[in-house]
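Sample 3 of the quickstart, ligand heme C:
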Amino acid sequence: MSGTRLFFALCLVVSVVAFGAAILTSAPASAMPPAPGVGMGIWKAYNCEGCHTIYGQGGAYAPDLTHIYAARGRDYLREFLANPAAFHPDQRQMPMFGLTKSETDNLLAFLQWVGEQPAAQSWPPRPITVSGGGSLSAAPVTAPADNAAPVSDDPVVRGQALFSNTPAICSTCHSLTPDVVIVGPSLAGIAERAATHAEGQSAEAYIRTSIVNPSAHIVEGFQDVMQKNFGDVLTSDQINDLIAFLMTQ
Ligand code: HEC
Ligand code: HEC
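Result:
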């Protein structure tokens, strides 16, 4: 008798587990769990996508990371992120970000989650519409607190803040000190150079094109690796502010 009971109890447990697993594995791509969601905010805040692609979106400077979690494993990635230069000294180098342990944990959760998505169609995660009609981003974007750009009436001040803060973070690749090359050319003196770079184009127009369509002119000695989606990522006000700032350089 108790054997039958045990059998039914086991059946119940198994079906609950199976049902739960079915719900979990069939969850739509937009339902991003908390840790990967935070990781995606960090991914954006450090502009990892300025150099890397996920499902083809992002910059072409560095390897695609869609399936990096499965390819490399957690321990390797943790060590790599702590000190990228130690790994492949003869290749392009990734900057050392000095990530905290929890930032690394969340980034790894994000990269793991990304690799488990069924197909490219589910990338980027769709916004979740909450009742009441408002729209919430699936991933809470948690930029480090010091990344909050101060609000100013002056476009030059706003542009300067944007230059080194999310979502632009031009400073991952561009220095403002003459002749210092990170990934892209130094933008010191860009206003003057821009005026002569493209015939029949104002300096402002040249800089705008450089931001929204980087492939239009490739600066000699550099590769076409600047992120191509700034026209979508930045608002037109933000682009105007960046141009106003760069025109002072
Ligand atoms: C300025 C460009 C740049 C930025 C920004 C950047 N990376 Fe990289 N990353 C690289 C380059 C170059 C490599 C290849 C270097 C190598 O393999 O040694 C790389 C490699 C990697 C790898 C693969 C390592 C391997 O051995 O397969 C991971 C994972 C990675 N980056 C994660 C990140 C994360 C997470 C961020 C944001 C916090 C980030 N990267 C931001 C340039 C960048
Ligand atoms: C992933 C690295 C990367 C990021 C991020 C990046 N750039 Fe670039 N940028 C480059 C590279 C490489 C070039 C040179 C190749 C070319 O002309 O596209 C360049 C070229 C430029 C030029 C033309 C410079 C000249 O002398 O003609 C401008 C202006 C510029 N970037 C502005 C920006 C601004 C503004 C941002 C932020 C919104 C930004 N870039 C973000 C890599 C980057």
